[in-house]
Amino acid sequence: MKITVTGLRGFPNIQGGVETHCEELYPRLAKLGCDVTLLRRRPFVRETPPLASWKGVKFRDLPAPTRMGVEAFVHTFRGVWHAFRHRAEILHIHAIGPSVAVPFARLLGLKVVVTHHGPDYNRLKWGRFARFILRTGECFAARWANEIIVISTVIRDLLGEKYSRTDGVHLIYNGVNMPQRRTESTDSIARMGLAPGKYILTVGRFVEEKNFDKLIRACAAMTLPEDCRLVIAGAADHPTAYSESLRELAVRNSVVLTGMVKGDALQELYAHARLFVLPSSHEGLPFTLLEAMSHGTDVLVSDIPANCAVGLPADCYFPYGDDVVAALRRALETKLSQPPKPRAYDLAPYDWDAIAQKTLEVYERTFSPPRP
Fold this sequence. Notes:
Layout: E1 2-6, H1 17-31, E2 35-41, E3 53-54, E4 57-62, H2 71-85, E5 90-94, H3 102-107, E6 112-116, H4 128-144, E7 147-150, H5 153-163, E8 169-171, H6 187-191, E9 199-203, H7 212-220, E10 229-233, H8 241-252, E11 256-259, H9 263-272, E12 275-278, H10 287-294, E13 299-302, H11 305-308, E14 317-318, H12 324-336, H13 352-367
Parallel strand pairs: 1-2, 1-5, 2-4, 5-6, 6-7, 7-8, 9-10, 9-12, 10-11, 12-13, 13-14
Antiparallel strand pairs: 3-4
Helix pairs in contact: 1-13, 7-12
């Protein structure tokens, strides 16, 4: 089965939740016999020379502008045309912004699968026009995609309520790899000036909805345990006024900024954290939370619907309301006043091999839809 994939910047070693999702999923689908071509955005490809393939997935790097809000739009339409010219049997579009191209793809005769990773129009970084495009993409996916994959029950219910789309909607979660616990290894965190159990960790891009600024202010308003530090692992895709102000706030408050961290170094950060915190106002199904859970790390997250859908114990949530800083500070004080304790989470629904098999079944249904 010949699959063309678009809607993301690419992989490997490219920051982002959709990128992480695809980096895990498509090599597994290639092993299951799919002929996968993934269309990357050329400006985000860092390796020299550019890879032609990786773990069985073929790459085609297409030009794209680097202006936020335009890159996905332009790249996806180029990707649809590429899929048509190269006779893809299925076009898989990731995220609702790129899904504005769904009608164009259907007019060209392509069979289209869309993965809805979350209602991105709720992200604080977008202006009015960008939110209109994102809502339009969601609408086009709901009305014209052959099949839709959703990564959480929240998104599945949203499609049913807003668009009455229930047929051909498949709940397939994001996944997580169970780590080989690296409790003996502390080399990476030592290079960052950190000690096991002596830091609070958060991970993600420098965007407003992650609320890293509020986390810094909450930590600054309380007395942290001795030698305990706040660590933010991540970076900005594009320099913005918010990302620059966040960096300045972090420096003033002695926060450890690691930059983008991947691989063993990131897993070591998760494994040795006293507490993982995710104070977001918007998520789909956060990889960072699943990764922290896979290490048995204690977590504290906002009680937004996407996080609540994970089904954590009650003491792992704090109320997200008008005064996020105060609520977060109180929850942090409660957590940190207790002895550190490892957690045991049920991660059975988030197995990547099972996710790949379910995605293949969606492809088979798209290629040969069941008779009425």
